[in-house]
Amino acid sequence: MHPATRHLPPANWPARSASAASLLFAPAPLGAATTRTRTWIPAMVPWRATESGHVTPDVIAWYTRFAQGLPGVLVVEATGIRDVPSGPLLRIGDDRHVPGLGELATAVRATSGGRTKLLVQLIDFLAIKRRPDPAAWFRRFLVITPAHRERLAVHADLAHLANAGEGELREGLLALPIERLTTILAARELDDLSRGYRERVTDTHLPHVAALPRDLPPLFAAAARRAEDAGFDGVELHYAHAYTMASFLSRLNTRTDGYGGSLEHRSRLAIEVFQAVRAAVSPRFVVGCRLLGDEVIEGGSRIEDAVFHSLALARAGIDFVSVSKGGKFEDAKQPKVGEAIYPYTGPSGHECMPTTKLDARGPFGRNLHLSRAIRAALRSAGFETPVVGAGGINSFELAEDALRSGACDFVASARQSLADPDWWRKMELGRGAEVRRCVFTNYCEALDQRHEQVTCQLWDRDFAAPDPTRPDGTIARSSDGKRRLVPPAWETGAID
Ligand SMILES: Cc1cc2nc3c(=O)[nH]c(=O)nc-3n(C[C@H](O)[C@H](O)[C@H](O)COP(=O)(O)O)c2cc1C
Ligand code: SF4
C-alpha cells in the first residue's frame, strides 16, 4: 500500500445490494439521452495524441481502459477546435480528424457495450509563449515607446537613456534590476518579461482577439458537428479554467464591445457559442458545458457570477452544467526561463486539483458547495438542467451523499478514476475493498505540467500485470520506456 494512503479518510464500501439501491448506480437523463449510472469521468489530458493532434493507438487504449470500468459518462480530454498546430493536444478543427476520432468512439462503444456515453470536451485557447530569456526579450521583443523614455527621464541616474539610441536604450534596460524596471516598464510588459507573453480576451487591439465573438461560434459548431459525425454522444464546451471562453465569462473581462463588462455581456458569447453548436447537431446529441463555480483569483468571478451564467445557459437550453473551480493563469507560479506558465500551480490551480497537502480539509468533496449552489439556483428557477460535481470524490459514501443531498446530479471523479478505472465497477459489484485508492498527491498532474504522457504512480511501474487493451500480451510503455501507459488489468473484473 502506498504510504500516503494513511492520509485518506476510511471508506465504507457498499454491498452489491446497496449499490443496486443507490442513486449513484441509477440511470439519469442527460439531454435527450439517458445514462446508465450517475458516474462520470471528467476530461483529463493524457498527452497521447500525435504532434498534429491525431488520435493514436495509445489514445484509444487510454479511453477503452476507462470504458472497461463502465462509467455512465466518459469525457474525452480538452480537444482543440482550431486547425492550428498545438503540440500533442487532440484536435477536432478539421475533417481529417474525424476518422481517428471515429475509431476512438467505436472502440469505447464496443468496450462498454454502449453502456458509457462518450462526450468530447471542446476547447479554444489564446496564444501563450514561454518565459523569455531577458537578453532576447529586451533586444528583440520589447517595443520601445515614448512612455519608456518619459519614465526614464524622471530618474536622475537613468535620464541619459531617455534620449539614447534604441540599441543603447535596450542594453541599459537589460542591465537594470527588476525593482527598477517596475518604474520603467508597463505592468503588462513586466508580466510578459517575467511570466511569458500571453494573449487576453481584452486585447481587442489585436484584430483576431477583437473578432473572437464572430469567429468562435462557427468554430465550436463545426467541431461539434465533427464530433457527432465521428460517433460521439455529445460535447462538453470548455468554459472553465484558464481558456478563452472562461475568460469571456470572467469578471476580469472588461471588453466594451457588448461581450464584456456586465454579467449579461460576459455570458453573451457562451450563449451564442452554445446556440451555434445546438443548431449544428441533431436534437439527440448532448451539448453541455464545464464552467467555474469560483475563479479563486483577485477580482475574478465568484459563485454569484457562476449562478448567473448557469441560469442564462439553462434558459438557452443547455443539456448540463459541469462545475469546476480555479485553474487560472493570473495567480500561477512564475515559470522558469524557457518554460510556459501552467495554470494549476497557484492558489486557484490548487483548488482545481486539490491535494491532501493543501490544508486540513483536504480535497474530499471540497468543491461540492459550488455545484450545490448552482443546482439550487437552477431548481428554484424551474430548470431541471443536470449539474455535475467534481473535486476529490473518492468514495461511495461521498458520491452518494453528494447526490442525495442535492450537491449534484452526476458525480465526476478524475484522479480516482485514473488511479483505478475499475473503481466504479468494483463498487457496483460490491467489491469496493479491491479499489486502488488515489492518494491525491498529484504525481499525474506534474506529468501533465511537463506535457509528458500522464500515468499514475500507483500502477505505472507494475510490469507484472497484463495490459488489458493488448491481447498480444505486450505492455504499452511511455516514450522513455520506464512507465506503463495503461492501468493493469483487474483480473477478476471481466465485463458481464
Ligand atoms: C492529468 C489531468 C489532466 C486534466 N485535464 C483536464 C482537461 O483537459 N479539462 C478539464 O476540464 N479538466 C481537466 N483536469 C481536471 C479534472 O477534470 C478535475 O476537474 C480535477 O482533477 C478535480 O477532480 P478530481 O479531484 O476528481 O481529480 C485534469 C486533471 C488532471 C489530473
Ligand atoms: S498519480 Fe494522480 S491518480 Fe495516481 S495516486 Fe497520485 S494523484 Fe492519484
Question: So what's the oligomer here?
Answer: single chain
Number of structural units classed as domains? 2
- Number of E strands: 10
Q: Report the β-strand fraction as a percent range.
A: 5-15%
**What is the succession of H and E elements?**
HEEEHEHEHHHHHHHHEHHEHEHHEHEHHH
Mean pLDDT over the full residue set = 96
Low-confidence stretches: none
CATH architecture of the largest domain: Alpha-Beta Barrel
The share of residues in helices is 25-40%
Largest sheet: 8 strands, parallel, barrel
CATH superfamily of the largest domain: Aldolase class I
**Backbone CA Rg:** 24 Å
Major sheet: arrangement of strands: 3-4-5-6-7-8-9-10
CATH topology of the largest domain, which one? TIM Barrel
Ends apart, CA distance between termini: 29 Å
Looking at the structure, what is the overall shape?
Answer: globular
What small molecules does this complex bind?
flavin mononucleotide, iron/sulfur cluster
Name of the top-level CATH class of the largest domain:
Alpha Beta
- Structural class by secondary-structure content: alpha/beta
- The number of helical segments is 20
Fold and architecture overview:
The chain is of the alpha/beta class and 496 residues long. The protein has two domains: 3-129 and 213-449, TIM Barrel (Alpha-Beta Barrel), CATH 3.20.20; 134-195, no CATH class. The chain is built from 20 helices and ten strands. The strands form two sheets. Strands 3-4-5-6-7-8-9-10 form an eight-stranded parallel barrel, surrounded by seven helices. A two-stranded antiparallel sheet has the order 1-2. Strand 7 (286-292), helix 14 and strand 8 (321-324) form a beta-alpha-beta unit. Helix 2 (57-67) packs parallel to helix 3 (98-112), helix 4 (134-141) packs antiparallel against helix 7 (166-174) and helix 14 crosses helix 16 (368-380). The longest helix is centred in the middle third of the chain and has 19 residues, at 212-230. The radius of gyration is 24 Å and the shape is globular. It starts with 15 loop residues before the first helix and ends in a 47-residue tail after the last helix. The model has no long low-confidence stretch (mean pLDDT 96). The chain binds flavin mononucleotide and iron/sulfur cluster. Flavin mononucleotide (FMN) binds at residues 42-45, 77-78, 121, 240, 290, 324, 353, 363, 390-393, 413-416, 444-445, 448, 454.
